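In this section we walk through a basic example: taking a raw amino acid sequence and producing a predicted 3D structure, encoded as discrete structure tokens. The instruction is simple. Fold the sequence below.
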Amino acid sequence: MSAELDMSQYIDLFLQEADEQLEILEQETLKLETDPSQDRMQVIFRAAHTLKGSSRAMGFSGFAELTHELENILDLLRQDRLELTTDAADGMLACIDALVQMKEAIAAGRPDTSIESGVLVQRLAAIASGQADSAPAPRTVAEPQADGQTGIDPSLWDALDAAAAESPVLRARFRLHSECVMKFVRAYMAISAIQEKGELLATWPSAEALEEEEFDRDFELVFQTKAGQDELSAKLSEISEIESFQVSPWSRPEPEAVSTPEPEAAKPAEPAGAAPDAAAAPRRADPARRADTGQTVRVDVARLDNLMNLVGELVIDRTRIAQIASDLAARGGGGNEDLQETVSHIARITFDLQDQIMKARMMPIETVFNRFPRVVRDLAQKLGKDVKLEMLGGETELDRSVIEVIGDPLLHILRNSIDHGLETPEERRAAGKSDQGLLLISARHQENHIVIEIRDDGRGIDPEKIKRKAVSQGLATEEQAARMTDKDVLQFIFGSGFSTATQVSEVSGRGVGMDIVRSNIQKLGGLIDLDSKVGEGTTTILRLPLTLAIIRGLLVRVEGRDYVLPLGSVVETMLLAADQIQRVKRREVVVIRGVTTPLLRLQSVFSDCGREDACSGDQAFIVVVGLADQRIGLVVDSLIGEQEVVIKSLSGFLGEVPGVSGATILGDGKVALIVDVGALVSREAV
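The resulting token sequence is shown next.
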């Protein structure tokens, strides 16, 4: 098997690992400025060391060189030989940005070299040489051990004996071809092959020496595995440029075999690419930890999407079977107990299956939150502001499909808070505030929704300023603006082209953004609201569904057709007498607990005849729905009940269908439209 083919097997694994380690690098480096603890420095150093080792093993020399310089900086920092300045932090973050770009280039099949990376290597080297008190001690090349049996440090023998008491310990001794060019690549492939089948316990020479290729042609791995020697040997034989290898049981050498003086003991094994001091020695494994090994797998998200679609079809069929059983029971005058029992069992199993698939698609929202510290830091520096970012509820989970959409809207809101909301340190001191502004983002579950709040303690939004701007742009007359409440005035911010910025900057001022934010949130079936007090700050509240695949809905009937209202948008239902419906300025309204609520007849939205005031008898069913603090009442012919429905997207050939967000298939096989409550409320509320 060729070396190129060997490496192609590991490219996906490298990219996945690079994603994880780069995220650790960025997040922990940002925290390092406020909490430069040794533990945090060690975490960052390990991540950089892992990246260096894996990139070098894959032959990505440009990536490895840049990571090596980053590792040097981190090594000096953790030894207190380099001061963590803003310049050093900026250089490290710029390096991480370049590594992200190089990783993307590798994923696209392009080289991992660039002029920028060369400049960054020089920049990091200058930081290290200009402030470090001395250069790192030179490393020495490991020499072969003289015991004739193993190069493993005798101080580790007790730990290996303890491990062997649990399950057999094996060793594999390798000799590379004399013409082998990339020795660590072959060692890394051998380590990876062994870790696929078991657990690596020790190496000779040390993992660091292997990575730096500080050995001649021989190396040794000690490990535990459940795989047979034949199976393992077949796997190892696929690695090219290995002249010979031997797999045999490990045993403690006889005392006379180690009488020859030995050089300095080699370091114990570490996971490939880990920091040299990440593990002191192989130890007796915790049974619980070992039992968890290999219990998680990576699954392509496309497979989860397909599973979710199949479960959706199953939910539809479950509802259909239940409907058929109910119809049969009604026709026969009695119920078939066996059929009813089977239907109930299918319902339970389907619900459990659906629940498990939903959980498999769930992701913590911290995957989105983790993008924000870097953005806040860079933007605050650019605007000359001191901002403290706090994030709460990062462990809150929601569907991957929602995660993919909300990142950009949240990012835009954060940028607005920093640019428009938070003041400069001088302005905050003049207002009697601390120099540092607070930006808090939190997430929490609330029923079957997730609520995200972005709050700042800045200058707040002046409603009078918004009114003047709205009047000057012709969005409202002076009389209309005077009658508006502060809550109503804030809604202008979501208008297309509306901006209170006095000048256009890189960050804002063009009047685009918040209208798109609200549009994207509403497409998710979510709500967005603003609350602000002048001089105290602004809070933006987002209410989002946990998933976009299956929802709870209220089925209503209008002119013989069934429609679904998302239950998360339903405030209340009521049955009113026809004479309780009044008219104000030619519009139907109803007074509910002293509040005037406009009415909208669904038949006027979906019926061909377009009747707006047709009344079905002496009574009317009203479903009050809401968008933020806005409320309207939808007039329907009858209420059918709650039901779990599977959302099906409408074909692109239909274009935009006003008032409709999708469709579903009901238990009787009929198609029901899902009402876009947000669009109706935005259009009709007054």
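Looking at the output, two observations stand out. The CA atoms of residues 296 and 360 lie 12 Å apart. Residues 3-131 form a domain with the Four Helix Bundle (Hemerythrin (Met), subunit A) fold (CATH 1.20.120.160). In the next section we compare this with other chains.
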